[in-house]
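Dear Dr. L.,

I hope this message finds you well. Following up on our conversation about the binding site, I have prepared a predicted three-dimensional model of the protein together with magnesium ion. For your records, I am including the exact sequence and ligand specification that went into the calculation, followed by the structure tokens. Please feel free to forward this to your student if that is useful.
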Amino acid sequence: MSKPKKDPQKSNIKDPSGNDKISESFEKPAIICSDIVKDYEIGDYIVRAIDDISLSINNGEFVVIRGPSGAGKTTLLNLIGGLDSPNNGTIFSLGIKISDLKEESLSTWRLINSGFVFQNYNLISTLTAEENIIFPINLSGVGLKMGRERAVSLLKKIGLNDRREHLPFQLSAGEQQRVAIARALANDPPIILADEPTANLDKKTSQIVRDLFKELKNAIKTIIIVTHDDYLIGLADKIIDFDDGKIVNEEITHKNKS
Ligand SMILES: Nc1ncnc2c1ncn2[C@@H]1O[C@H](COP(=O)(O)OP(=O)(O)O)[C@@H](O)[C@H]1O
Ligand SMILES: [Mg+2]
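The resulting structure of the complex is given below.
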């Protein structure tokens, strides 16, 4: 059974009267997308991948996005995670208007605030498992010694401490995906985004990855995950069905809240 969901902001909110009474209006959105549009222009053709959508995701929410291939799911994840910017509309994440940020500020924002798990892992091929995890930690300004300690603790958490010296090509698909998840967690970001993280994995490794996401849910991270995996869908607080660049259905399940 999952632990009761605590809102991370709740304990920080004081009553305006000055008492330490906790405010009840704590359900603050982590992410607010308003009227966002994303077009891809290739030659004479324009593909509207995201077609004027608005969406709000609360702190600590576990959101599943699902839909057919080409629906725009990856594009939406890239926009929410600050990997790309919309042509129109605004995206606020953790109070910052990320849709207006230039690439340099956006990459700094990403480093601290969002951990991205890509469908094809995207590990740096010339770096070992451990170095792939240390890399974003160093970029955030943390020294090598502390970075290594954190990487080792993450490698232990994902059960791959004995593979720390392995290069990506020396790891199985499932092991690469686990290292990619550890890398996404390297700077302990409040938002985790994952694009079909179990899609290319066998049954056993899929379950290890599922369990990692369940742990993250219990750790009250805001999680946005594109998936068709029934187990992960079962963890969702909100399910967004996406097609043709639009939200076709939004279902709040709160299934695991107690
Ligand atoms: N970098 C790109 N350049 C041009 N078109 C793209 C690019 N990325 C995605 N698209 C197009 O945008 C649409 C949505 O793609 P995508 O977000 O990858 O969908 P999904 O993840 O749901 O399969 C598709 O029609 C795809 O061909
Ligand atoms: Mg995709």
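In brief: Confidence is low (pLDDT under 50) at residues 1-26.

With kind regards,
A. P.
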